[in-house]
Amino acid sequence: MLAQRTLKEGGADDAAKIDYLAKRLLARPLSEAEKPIVAASLADLLAFYKAKPDDAAKLLVVGESKRDESLDASTHAAW
């Protein structure tokens, strides 16, 4: 649910979404040193799930909440 909420409410670009997520998970914004590390991890995850959409689909069925089907599955899984 947090990934879904981040994608829908976190802002217009990945940097805003990362900030939104960090404030909810850490109760603080990321430091300037942390930001590129998190952005690189997100890029790696996006590439992985775009190359392996079946893995994204498997990940997104885990849990009790239904996922928002309007979100791209690979992007959702990466977040």
**How is the biggest beta sheet arranged?**
none
* Average pLDDT metric: 97
Q: Percent helix among the residues?
A: 55-70%
Per DSSP E runs of 2 or more residues, the count of β-strands stands at 0
H/E element sequence: HHHHH
Assess the beta-strand content as a share of residues.
under 5%
Q: In one word, what is the shape?
A: globular
* Quaternary structure classification: single chain
Jot down its keywords.
mainly alpha; single chain
Describe what this molecule looks like in 3D.
The protein is globular, with a radius of gyration of 13 Å. The N and C termini lie close together (10 Å). The protein has 79 residues and is mainly α. The longest helix is centred in the middle third of the chain and has 18 residues, at 34-51. The protein has five helices and no strands.
Concise structural overview:
The protein is mostly helical. It is built from five helices and no strands.
Write the layout of secondary structure elements.
Elements: H1 2-9, H2 14-26, H3 34-51, H4 53-60, H5 73-78
